[in-house]
Amino acid sequence: MKPRFALKIRDHLHDPVKKRSFNEAHFSEAASRYDIATVAMSLGRDRAWKNRLIAALPDGGAPRCVDLACGTGDIVFALAERYPQGEILGLDIAEPMLERARRRQRTDNICFERRDMCATGLEEQSVDILTGSYAIRNAPDIEPALQEISRVMKPGGVVALLDFSKSIRPSRQKLDALLLKYWCGLWGLLLHGNPEIHAYIAASLKTFPDRVELRRMLTEQGLQLTSSCSFYFGMLELLVLRKEA
How far apart are CA 20 and CA 115, in angstroms? Predict the structure, then answer.
């Protein structure tokens, strides 16, 4: 019998090593029903948001694209469709996610690899387009993750990040955290028998910078905001950025 997932995010959130370990175990557990969960928790809007991310990317060419925390591969496959001559690399730390992504693969310009977004091992200034959906919030440590993104991006390269957005107002932060804890925890309970699965989203926002601070951190890494768009009653945001030349 498979052991029940027993880790508690509160015991792992404030230490990068522990958070990475939690994320690997958590997303490995969530992988089997992750696609169902994202549709349910987003009220069926997850695909539309990701389509907006893909539509925000530059047209044509044969770019080298990297998708961070690629999960079961939906953004990777959309990138391959958008750029059939491009090279598409999906990175994730949870092997069960990657296994499901590889089973869905139908084109030979895609590769999935198990890597940490804080230390990808990619060459400096080697990436034209980098994407992440619900990715950077899960970084073991946000600053090294942003530094790594900046390091691998070519000058003029485009970064598109879709993730939960933390309000600058403490009252709104508390309300969003409460809603996400119980709504996402409900789907963890229904799909895995454990609310700790997916209720993690609310907990992860505690150490995530608010939307103003996140913009400052991105700018500090030479990533200039070109557009943004909010979703899900303002709880999610799509940021499109360009690496300084």
Answer: 11
